[in-house]
Amino acid sequence: MLTDATATAPSARRRTGRAHDDAPDTKEAAAHLATLDGGPEYDLLCEEIVTAWLPMANRLAGRFRNKGENLEDLRQVAAMGLIKAVNRYEPERGAFESYAVPTITGELRRHFRDRMWDVRVPRRVQELRNKVRVARRDLMDQPGHDAEPGIAELAEHTGLTEAEVHDGLEALTSYRALSLDAEISADPDGFSLADTLGTSDPAYDFITDREAAKDGLRRLPERERTILYLRFFEDMTQSKIAEELGISQMHVSRLITNSCARVRAEAVRGDESTEHGTGHARAA
């Protein structure tokens, strides 16, 4: 059984900066998990450890809440990082928290790097963008520097080549897409970008199904929800999910099948309850 503890191992304190009141004592559970190779006992123990450390993962997700992403989505990403940490943790390397915190934080940062750009650009170009953005700000803040710095000036200030500065400048406009209200034509009778969009959204056909599945998804364990999220929302293959979470592809397949069956059964029960309630209302 897992027990709560108010103290954190010294190595974890140095890594995270402070001890956390919600840091549980999972040392024995993690050590036993490392000796197992899948199976029901592994799944149960993994779920217990994830549940115990989930408050910490949610707290780490909260640090990124003002960066333009929904907090619930951030918590889902943090939970995925936590599951990775649980599955890959090796007790002989030190305290779990000192391993889990950078794993979860790295997952959150990777989410912003890979998912939050409206126009996907390579990581190298994103780094160039940041250097160019800082250099522009520094140069514009200098006394008497009113004009926009040129490519040659930015290259000299950053130590980059002019070609790299050019790539960084282009990336500055790639983080956010053009507004739907942006005018496409300069003509007085011109039109906006929204005026060029008018196709039907096929997602409307799935609203009822998605609503019916919500209750069943909420009742799934955290790891099963994460696997379904990766498979059906991130469009990841079963083998890729297995690699990400440190488990076998066969195990992922079994969890997906069982989870979908549980969600489907929950949706059917919800429909039957609704119909039963409607029947009573009509009889009354």
UniProtKB/TrEMBL annotation:
InterPro entries assigned to the protein according to its UniProt record, in alphabetical order: RNA_pol_sigma-70_dom, RNA_pol_sigma-B/F/G, RNA_pol_sigma70, RNA_pol_sigma70_r2, RNA_pol_sigma70_r3, RNA_pol_sigma70_r4, RNA_pol_sigma_r2, RNA_pol_sigma_r3/r4-like
Bias type Basic and acidic residues, positions: 18-28
Protein name per the record: SigB/SigF/SigG family RNA polymerase sigma factor
PANTHER family for the chain: RNA POLYMERASE SIGMA-E FACTOR, SIGMA FACTOR F FLAGELLAR
Biased composition (Low complexity): 1-11
Occurrences of domain RNA polymerase sigma-70 region (ranges): 50-117, 127-189, 217-264
Keyword Membrane: no
Keywords, sorted A to Z: DNA-binding, Sigma factor, Transcription, Transcription regulation
Database matches in Gene3D superfamilies: 1.20.120.1810, Winged helix-like DNA-binding domain superfamily/Winged helix DNA-binding domain
Region of interest: Disordered: 1-28
